[in-house]
Amino acid sequence: MAVELLWWAGCPSHPAVAEQLRGLGVPFAELEIVSEEDAARERFPGSPTVRVDGVDLFPSDEPPSLTCRIYVLGDGRFSPVPDVDELRAALLRAGCELTST
Amino acid sequence: MALAFTLPDTSGTSVSLHEDGAAAAVVVFTCNHCPYALAWHERLQDVARDYADRGVRFLQINSNNAEKYPRDSVDAMRARVDAGEFAGPYLVDSSQEVARAWGATVTPDVFVTDATGVVYRGAPDGDYNDPSLRAEWLRAALDDVLAGRPVAAAETKPVGCSIKWR
To answer: Is 0.85 exceeded by the ipTM?
Structure first.
């Protein structure tokens, strides 16, 4: 499985998600989104975005944009990063093998 | 003195920074589409309500480029105000002049002013993800101002989404 972390430098959220992925033991590649053209080409709804084999782990109908992505936690709070338990569950559903839980 | 401004709220009524009788004013650059601003939002509204009867004005300003980020349009701002999400005026800085003049960089970017000028600038507290912190850095600054003391921690690092400039 190819796990990708897509991020945009105008948003400070992606190091936290990179840390989540490392904590779950998931190898991943990073792809920096630099321009609006990049965002459109990659169908990038905001930073950070995690994809497995090209599929967004948290499907969104937001248009491509250079922006911070909004995640909604299990208790309804807004967050710039996904809940780590939801990230773990999404990775498992996508068929990823986690070497750490 | 802090840089004066007059901006329209979401109904078009002009609101100014300075108002007779106010002991202090909080100015928060915020917006609709940033997860950091949303994560801290309720904590900031609690501060607005808790200090309203102590002479603290609480003004929230959206300076983002709404043409590129439609979630920050005046209509979208008004919808949130109408839904009761704001405990004070939500002001429209469509020219972005106020954000530039104040040196705001992210949302949320919090400033506290008194008669002498800006006495605190930074984040509401140390963790957007921990509501129990209750915007403690902002509250401490206001408590210092209201007690007539110098603000002990006058600057922290604002954390959030970059303001979307034109």
So the answer is: yes
